[in-house]
Amino acid sequence: MAQDSNKRKKPNILITGTPGTGKTTTSSALAEATQLRHINIGDLVKEKNLHDGWDEEFDCHIINEDLVCDELEDIMEEGGNIVDYHGCDFFPQRWFDRVVVLQTDNSVLYDRLNKRGYSQNKISNNIECEIFQVLLEEAKESYAEDIVVALRSDSIEDISRNVATLTDWVRGWQPAS
């Protein structure tokens, strides 16, 4: 595990959280601040057809996790990536040096998802995930606990502070020796 990160000159970061917590906004701003590559898994799945069709109930693609991992393997080994996705348990542990779980207050989250035109079913499902901290638990079970960090993401100020904190972390990052 450690030897993979030796080869990397730059760290890999996973930014995860319930839909609507600000993953893409945070990832884009962080990529700009650090010159790391932003990989939005949802966009990648659509562009490269890395899915097994459409889920009518949740109104989204059914991603093919194996295809996604195969697609990313080489660039993840290079390092210097910010991966933006609402799931995290299928990515290889060796890929990431930092796993960020964004968390948002339920009323803020409700408004964001409602503005996106999500169905009530999809909104309820995502709010439930947030209440039960499903993604934080998933991250803690999937990665070494010392690389997992939960960050509040309710406002533009929160996002700016998170980007500043993560930019400092990237600047101080050293490959494992």
From TrEMBL:
<feature type="compositionally biased region" description="Low complexity">
    <location>
        <begin position="16"/>
        <end position="26"/>
    </location>
</feature>
<keyword id="KW-0547">Nucleotide-binding</keyword>
<dbReference type="GO" id="GO:0004017">
    <property type="term" value="F:AMP kinase activity"/>
</dbReference>
<comment type="subunit">
    <text>Interacts with small ribosomal subunit protein uS11. Not a structural component of 43S pre-ribosomes, but transiently interacts with them by binding to uS11.</text>
</comment>
<keyword id="KW-0808">Transferase</keyword>
<feature type="binding site">
    <location>
        <position position="22"/>
    </location>
    <ligand>
        <name>ATP</name>
    </ligand>
</feature>
<feature type="region of interest" description="Disordered">
    <location>
        <begin position="1"/>
        <end position="26"/>
    </location>
</feature>
<keyword id="KW-0418">Kinase</keyword>
<protein>
    <recommendedName>
        <fullName>Adenylate kinase isoenzyme 6 homolog</fullName>
        <ecNumber>2.7.4.3</ecNumber>
    </recommendedName>
</protein>
<keyword id="KW-0067">ATP-binding</keyword>
<keyword id="KW-0963">Cytoplasm</keyword>
<dbReference type="GO" id="GO:0005634">
    <property type="term" value="C:nucleus"/>
</dbReference>
<comment type="similarity">
    <text>Belongs to the adenylate kinase family. AK6 subfamily.</text>
</comment>
<dbReference type="GO" id="GO:0042274">
    <property type="term" value="P:ribosomal small subunit biogenesis"/>
</dbReference>
<feature type="binding site">
    <location>
        <position position="24"/>
    </location>
    <ligand>
        <name>ATP</name>
    </ligand>
</feature>
<keyword id="KW-0690">Ribosome biogenesis</keyword>
<dbReference type="GO" id="GO:0005737">
    <property type="term" value="C:cytoplasm"/>
</dbReference>
<feature type="binding site">
    <location>
        <position position="116"/>
    </location>
    <ligand>
        <name>ATP</name>
    </ligand>
</feature>
<keyword id="KW-0539">Nucleus</keyword>
<feature type="region of interest" description="NMPbind">
    <location>
        <begin position="40"/>
        <end position="63"/>
    </location>
</feature>
<dbReference type="InterPro" id="IPR027417">
    <property type="entry name" value="P-loop_NTPase"/>
</dbReference>
<feature type="binding site">
    <location>
        <position position="20"/>
    </location>
    <ligand>
        <name>ATP</name>
    </ligand>
</feature>
<feature type="binding site">
    <location>
        <position position="23"/>
    </location>
    <ligand>
        <name>ATP</name>
    </ligand>
</feature>
<dbReference type="GO" id="GO:0005524">
    <property type="term" value="F:ATP binding"/>
</dbReference>
<feature type="binding site">
    <location>
        <position position="25"/>
    </location>
    <ligand>
        <name>ATP</name>
    </ligand>
</feature>
<dbReference type="Pfam" id="PF13238">
    <property type="entry name" value="AAA_18"/>
</dbReference>
<feature type="region of interest" description="LID">
    <location>
        <begin position="115"/>
        <end position="125"/>
    </location>
</feature>
<dbReference type="GO" id="GO:0016887">
    <property type="term" value="F:ATP hydrolysis activity"/>
</dbReference>
<keyword id="KW-0698">rRNA processing</keyword>
<dbReference type="GO" id="GO:0006364">
    <property type="term" value="P:rRNA processing"/>
</dbReference>
<comment type="function">
    <text>Broad-specificity nucleoside monophosphate (NMP) kinase that catalyzes the reversible transfer of the terminal phosphate group between nucleoside triphosphates and monophosphates. Has also ATPase activity. Involved in the late cytoplasmic maturation steps of the 40S ribosomal particles, specifically 18S rRNA maturation. While NMP activity is not required for ribosome maturation, ATPase activity is. Associates transiently with small ribosomal subunit protein uS11. ATP hydrolysis breaks the interaction with uS11.</text>
</comment>
<dbReference type="InterPro" id="IPR020618">
    <property type="entry name" value="Adenyl_kinase_AK6"/>
</dbReference>
